[in-house]
Amino acid sequence: MTFPTKLKQMMMFNAGAAFVGETVEITPPKLTRKLEEYRAGGMNRPVKVDMGGEALEMEATYGGPMRQILRQHAMLSLSGVQQRFVGSFQNDDTGNLDAIEIVTRGRHEEIDMGNWKPGDDTEFKVKSQLSYYKLSWNGEVVIEIDVLGMVELVGGVDLMAAHRAVLGI
Length: 169
Description:
This protein is mainly β. It is built from two helices and twelve strands. The protein has one domain: Roll (Pnp Oxidase, Chain A). Helix content is about 5%, strand content about 55%. Strands 1, 2, 3, 6, 7, 8, 9, 10, 11 and 12 form a ten-stranded antiparallel beta sheet that branches. A two-stranded antiparallel sheet has the order 4-5. A hairpin with a 5-residue loop joins strand 7 and strand 8. The longest helix is centred in the last third of the chain and has 7 residues. The mean pLDDT is about 95.
């Protein structure tokens, strides 16, 4: 019998600054493919053709207003904000730890400062659109997507290498 690892500790960094004790939760990017139905003569039913990936976004919730993030509002560069999440996941059956790290570059699409009421908890939510995403597990790169560089590594295989070669880039 196996037992899943569970997130026990985490840390969020933004442009190199450590958000110690400020990050409540993150929602990692969903990895989705854009699939379109295709059916032609001689086919009894359609198949879905892979047309590439969908847009990447990540959300984070903080315990209160974050000045550094507010200063990044309306960033002109598609990859102007670098964020890094590190999670310590532990298996309670074996005690083994796994380090899962997510590095992103992008810009903030939405900054929600929530509701402010004395005596109540405040939340500060940020949704970021990403041009770069890398997920590493115990130091091994599992997925790396560089939208602007036309790189998409999955399990060590660059799915875009042949396309770059055909295009001469």
